[in-house]
Fold this protein.
Amino acid sequence: MPGRRSVIGSYQAVADIAGQRFFSTTIPRHADITLTVDGKEVTVPQGTALIQACEAAGATVPRFCYHDRLAIAGNCRMCLVEVERSPKPVASCAMPAMPGSKVFTNTPLVHKAREGVMEFLLANHPLDCPICDQGGECDLQDQSMRYGSDRTRFHEITGKRATENKDLGPIVKTSMNRCIQCTRCVRFANDVAGVEDLGTTGRGNDLQIGMYIEKTMDSEMSGNIIDLCPVGALTSKPYAFQARPWELKKTESVDVLDAVGSNIRVDSRGVQVMRVQPKINDEINEEWINDKTRYAYDGLKYQRLTTPLVREGDKFVPATWEHAMESIRHGFLNSGARGDEIKAVAGALADTESLVALKDLINRMGSENLTTDTPLGHLPSPTGSEIRSNYLFNTSIETANEADAVLLIGTNPRHEAAILNTRFRKSYLQTGAEFALIGENFDSTFEYEHVGTSAKDVESFLGGKGKGAFGKIWKEAKKPLVIVGSGVIEGKEGAAVLKAVSKHMLDNSARFLAEGWNGFSVLQRAASRTAALDVGFTPSAAASKATPKFVYLLNADDIDPSTIPENAFVVYQGHHGDLGAQFADVCLPGAAYTEKATTWVNTEGRSQMGRTAVPPPGASREDWKILRALSEVVGEPLPYDDIYTLRERMWDVSPTLLRYDTLERPSAELVTAGLKQLSSASVSAGSATAFKKPISDFYRTDPISRASVTMAACSKAFTKKEYETTQVDDAIGGQASYA
Amino acid sequence: MSLRSALAPLRQAVRVTPRRAFGSSASRQSESLFVHRDTDYNNPNIKFEFTPENLKEAQKIIDRYPPQYKKAACMPILDLGQRQNGGWTSISVMNAVAKLLEMPKMRVYEVATFYTMYNREPVATNFVQLCTTTPCQLGGCGSTKILETIESHLNVHPGQTTKDGKFTLIEVECLGACSNAPMMQINDDFYEDLTPETTIQVLQALSKGERPKPGPQSGRRTSENSAGLTTLTGPPPKPGQFNLPEFQ
């Protein structure tokens, strides 16, 4: 397979360029320097922090404030090391590695320095460990055991510093007495999350972290400050006093609540998911996940379908699998559905294995009516499903921050792909990228110019009639990027917008389709959409006109009820009793993403393996197995009996589905062919109807988050702004004293 | 009996040991609050806008810095706002500064809470800042005496405002006039070389609405030797006065 090898070759080349993480992300420096750490020579790129050079040499340096993805503060002093010919110990996080310097991380001076710093930090730290949620994963606890002294010289009867608690909303629980003022949360909130409300007030011993005024931390990334906090000052409110880290089974998996495919670690105890944590993946989510990914897990406990249900009259009756399958067979035969009258609808949370199985099953039953639960999902997608680059985020999440001018069309990356939004925030702050939006305004973490609202505006802007400063920037941009939102593609104007965009790409191919750059990206927002298009889960033109008599809903919960005919026989397969289940004659309980090992393809086209953390509840089963069993019942048995043969079938459908964790970039020829196909579509010109945001409430977008209590609280607090901050102290009455 | 006497020293030892109940340590109270509490006199709904003259002044300050570093003007403009707002920086002043300088509000709050000369609570027209740092404590009659004088004269303690709303008294750290100790700063003026009598004179003049002469109250000029000059008393030497005759 020469094609495959070359693809892998180019991937390796990309990986080589990415290579080492630089101290500075803005100016890549390629000169290497050599220094000695504990007698060991180590070569690092120039500009690397000394602490990273020590890490590279295998010497562990304790730290609290330093974090390799945040700006450097240098205020905890825990990373002190000894440098030859330096009169004092040196804070290794704030000191660049110098060529030829001799560094020691394991000398009596360093030990004494660490012990002293530790003593200062503990002087004002409460002895809360037994009742602190951070216990077991607390940097302060671990490092005081490893580097601290076992006694203190602090015996002041006046007691330790006390700091008022803050109320940051329904996600972050604070216990500010425990704070050691490392300011990681402040730096994260300002630089990554883009909420510039968190800061330090006061000075000296009274310095405290907070927002000064009473306010919640309204950010979709706020949960990350809990991970960043090296002590128990910021802990998780929904997870408070639920479990200790050592009791949890850790399963590395993939998030499916948006199309980014953030890598996560599912922590479970017994059959219950206790929490979701980010897993580092520099190519996708770095070290962050958004709050929905992190906190929607309690939705896995509520509203679940645990047994098959069969409708009798106007209520559902629990049934055995045999009974449910028999009911489907009867219903199918009685409906008299033939050919394209058999319709399958795939929802946002359908995994790739079951999409392939369902497509095979429906095709075997003689139908091509494979649709999605989007507004115009019963029609073929305007992107087509033949050429991958037409519906992928071609630019890739990792390189999206290289774009110097970004045009967002009908999308709000903050809600549709919060991780991507942090990359844009980064490029906005560090490289001065410029942004513009055509569509509905949103509360952004970067400044953008609003250049239009509708498909007509897209055509006129890309037609060279761009007004304002951005029109000029756009013409001169070296790495321009157009992001077409999934809401646009799913709408009536999708084809017209794609036509205008693809024409613009082809006309300016030197900039948009240059070597190592692809400026055409479609941003999907549902985890299953890319896979659905990859496996060809779209209706044929003829099939989309048929009136269905038998409808099979696979996780389809955003379906428009009017697309289900009154007399059709409806089967719902999924894990939550949400909207889709209401229309069903038979409900089949499937497994949620934490309960099955399945393939997910993210918006870039990167396939990743989700893993089983907990067993599916009750009588529910893995989704592909349900379809396999059903195929037997309806007399069209599918030819795979285990997951391996099913994956072989997936390989036949598209090998990319099984090339896990790698990003296959379509060749330039293919991209051009795809764009030509889009630009030659015969569609009427775009109308002046304004684009609508597809996500109105970030915290309630899918059956899992809609069932989640935490997400409901977040929705109330942040979307509806109805959060009541608990008054910490009502004691201050009248005019307070001076100072 | 013998057992009791044997236990006596032990009991005594127990009694002698200071009692410290579990978790008895008192919380260390900070002298000011570093969070904002909405009150009827200080909340974001109270309007504050720079006057046209002050806006002009602010523009002059902003022009001192490169345009992309507009936020560098934060401190002088906060001071401008504080002056316009009657000597204190309300939350509305901070918000107005943030808006004027196009910076996040929190960055202004950080500055305003860090520096002690931004008063985040209202102060009286005469803001008495008495230095009680060591040189002032030791110099002259000593700042402790001055503090007692002011306290008894105004009938307030540090941190309080008089009932008539004319004076607010606080203790401050060194204001850099140690050679004229003890001293106090009232609004922008230093009153130095204080004695209880001169202190009361200054306060009385201020309460009448006069402005007493700032500087040393003892009559000496700046920080000259109070016992008269000991050096540089004669005329300065003429050019070449001390040269050898042949060079004169």
